[in-house]
Amino acid sequence: MSTQSPQRAEPDLLYSEDEEALRAAVRDLLADHCDAAGVIARAESDAPHDRELWKLLADGMGLAGLLVPEELGGQGATHREVAVVLEELGRAVAPVPYLTSAVVATEALLAADAGDLLGELASGRRIGALAVALNIPAGSAYQVVRFEDGALHGELTGIADAAVADVLLVPADDGGLYAVDASAATVTPQVSLDLTRPLAKVTLDGAPGRLLGDAEPAVRRALRAGAGLLASEQLGLAEWTLTETVRYLKERKQFNRPVGGFQALKHRLAQLWLEVVNLRATARNAADQLATGGDDADLAVAVAQAFAAPVAVHAAEEALQLHGGIGMTWEHPVHLYLKRAKADSIAYGTAGAHRAALAELVDLRAP
Amino acid sequence: MTDAADLRRRTAELLAAYPPSRLPPPPSTEDPAGPPPSSATTDRLDFLRARFDAGLAWVHYPEGLGGLGAPRSLQAVVDADLEAEGAPDNDPRRIGIGLGMAAPTILAYGTEEQKRRYLRPLWTGEEVWCQLFSEPGAGSDLAALGTRAVRQGDGDWVVNGQKVWTSSAHIARWAILIARTDPDVPKHRGITYFICDMTDPGVEVRPLRQVTGEAEFNEVFITDVRIPDSRRLGEIGDGWKVAQTTLNNERVAIGGMRLPREGGMIGPVARTWRERPELRTHDLHQRLLKLWVEAEAARLTAERLRQQLVAGQPGPEGAGMKLAFARLNQEISGLEVELRGEEGLLYDDWTMRRPELVDFVGRDAGYRYLRSKGNSIEGGTTEVLLNIVAERVLGLPGEPRTDKDVAWKDLAR
Q: Where's the Acyl-CoA dehydrogenase/oxidase N-terminal domain (chain A) (predicted)?
């Protein structure tokens, strides 16, 4: 037994009873209101977002305000609870702007101390979107618009869920972050790889904006939380693809036996299970570190994203392959998961970008 | 029920009766000669024996057998208080097989007499144990073993056979042994579990030199070794079931350990990277970062598993931890040899040594690379463990079996 100085307490990597109860409630709601066939049908329509489901989550359950303090109209919960909600939304590839509005936009507003808007977002009455392209990691350069004569001018692309946003949080070239009413902007949907989290182009042509505060710290905080909690969505997604593939391979027979009995496939699924188990620990760690504001939060987020993205993509790709021809069809939902997983692997920074951040954080520098 | 406060009180009483400041440090695990033969040894053992008798050795064991029937998770309370006072430990690495495998099996299947005879010197480290399971023809297919135990008229058993990959056999006083007692029934049903005396003249231990040059393992030849029936564990023919207890405990012991960040194989290579900028290349940088992330993920998973155990909710993750660490150790140590360039072409020492301990990281990069090759074989091969995960955790169909209803003597060998 070592006699080293005692280590700092490890993060709590388990789920509390309350968190499990929250999970059960969200899962029940999604089972009733977010089936795969519905998501596919919606994805092909002009209105890919599920506003009814959003209303149930935000209004009915108050989940949009988990990160917002109670005195501002929120639930005063933490990133740990948000992570549990995102796990379930990931399992269902639910087409709701939860990550973008209730996490990323909310974190930006928390940084800017924008009380009234926080209350509106928390209640779900309005949906917010940070007008930074989805692929940008915290700490990287992002596009800004021009602030001139008291109005905003410019074009921003790759803005996730902007199509349903009521308020856009726009960084400008004067270093400020502005709240812009969506009705004052032109939002043009882009054809997106991920049908369930569509991107849009935002054009501002002399739009009025209300200055919220400095953009840089708000954007940094928002993107860090987005990246860290995205790992929980990726966990839910990977879990669904694994569970569903295992279920299918127990039923599907070829050569007069269940396909899941062939060792070559058993080993692939066991490997995948192990990856998902590891993903759960990294995602839980990131959520806990964000919740407690620990010194290791940057590190935990970088580890979680560097690990989660490849695992979620691998899980979805394996699910497609192991479903055989059925996996290649539009009617089977596995494609929704593959598209979400691949888009998620770029969202808030690629695994490579997070590894580069890590190299600095843990002093493993490039040559 | 014994609670944490009660355990802390008992620990304080033990410390008061045996103040650890008077005790010498435990024998160095690096020093193969062990501690000097002075009265110091007696002091250390006195403390350990007193700790055992106070029920603070393994608190979840029964009273009188080193425990108090307390929840397993409360051991951490006792250990923390003892460590803070500098109390000697029982050198758990050196006696890992006894602690992790023999003890839980004896507790589950031993007679009262057996428990009282074996558990105390096992825990204090006075008697080292080894495990005589694997054979040249029975590794992953352990139940195919051929070592025979034949019952004599007086009730004793005479054992003949050969075992292999036996760590610690050269320092062990006792061994857990499985042998075939009925060749006429299918292989899993004709096995019986014994305790073997390693000092018996019929037991011959030969070092087995490995790819590292070391002889950490042994071959054990068993010739007409007489084992009294009083050293049988469990019923005749029930040995496979008893062995499952041993093997399940082995896997629990492998998972659930607490590691600091960079506490595993990634530590030495990360230090080399930091201290030797001249060795860095872009290709190695990418691979190192990827492995660093995977090592941290595995560490967090082990920590999560530990927290589950403490909370009394053991998860199936333990089944996978050995798989993860085996792969990581191999990839990371392989990377380190490359990182060292010209130095990677050298090796510290090929002299055959017989270490008392399994040493995964203590030598140079080349040694780590070679030793880690065993990680995916020892304690269950990666291929077998993947099957176990697939079948027991994911519920996928089992492998087709052609040996289930065939008498052992009729199996192809």
A: 16-102
DSSP collapsed to 3 states, B188-211: HHCEEEEEEECCCCCEEEEEECCC
Across the interface, of B303, B308, B313, the residue whose CB is closest to A10 is B303
Q: How many residues does chain B have?
A: 413
CB contacts < 8 A, A to B, total 133
Contact A204, A248 (CB under 8 A): no
What is the C-alpha to C-alpha distance for residues B372 and B328, in angstroms, rounded to an integer? 9
**B181 close to B236: Cβ distance less than 8 angstroms:** yes
Minimum-distance CB partner of A246 among B296, B311, B394: B394
Q: What is the pLDDT of residue B32?
A: 46
Inter-chain CB proximity A266 and B79 less than 8 Å: no
pLDDT digits (tens, 9 = 90+) for A152-162: 999 999 999 99
Q: B121: which 2 tokens?
A: 């010197």
CA atoms of A253 and A261, how far apart (whole Å): 9
d(CA B26, CA A347): 53
B397 and A261: CB-CB below 8 Å? yes
Active site residues of B: 250
Q: Give helix then strand counts, H and E, for chain B.
A: 12, 8
Distance CA A187, CA A202 (A): 5
Is residue A350 within 8 Å of B278, Cβ to Cβ?
no
Question: What is the rounded (10 degree) CA torsion for B332, B335, B340, B342?
Answer: 140
The nearest CA of chain A is from the CA of B237 a distance in Å of 30
* Statement: residue A23 has pLDDT above 70: yes
Model confidence pLDDT, tens digit, residues B98-121 = 999 999 999 999 999 999 999 999
Between CA B307 and CA A252 the distance in angstroms is 37
Q: Pick from A274, A276, A285, A303 the residue to mutate for testing the B interface (most B CBs within 10 Å).
A: A274
Alpha carbon distance B254, B235 (integer Å): 28
